[in-house]
Amino acid sequence: MVRAGTGMDNINTKLLVRKNIKLISTPGANAIWTAEFTLMQILNLCKRMPDFYPKIQEKNFRRHLFEGRELSKMNVGIIGVGNVGFEVAKRLKPFGCKIYAYEKKLEGRYIGSFNKLITKVDILTIHLNLTKENKNIKGACIWVS
Known about the structure:
Layout: E1 2-3, H1 13-18, E2 24-25, H2 31-46, H3 49-57, E3 75-79, H4 83-92, E4 98-102, E5 109-113, H5 114-120, E6 123-126, E7 141-144
Parallel strand pairs: 1-2, 3-4, 3-6
Antiparallel strand pairs: 4-7, 5-7
Helix pairs in contact: 2-4
């Protein structure tokens, strides 16, 4: 069996062992695609594309009604800086936005808890495998890059 993606939380590994089925995992294989998709969604929200698209279909091109926000002036929180979260951060950096990341291994200054993080960011993106450790992430520490 091959797991082409991220996370093992939806695979019964004990059953595979019992049935002598070999598991091959490819973590990170789709990290860049997923990071680019995340960035596309962030830009769609910043530029209010979900609001603007129906107006275009109606041939209403008064774009001043739907002026979005500049990503360079926004704060983006990333929870989980593994394969995907790291690639998201790498792609956000050239936009000039301030990046808050849930990851101690990144150099940064301590800012508090999850609740404090969500008061500081305009956008929050989460890239975690579900584990017992992060199931209740709201009590975790946050670091600023």
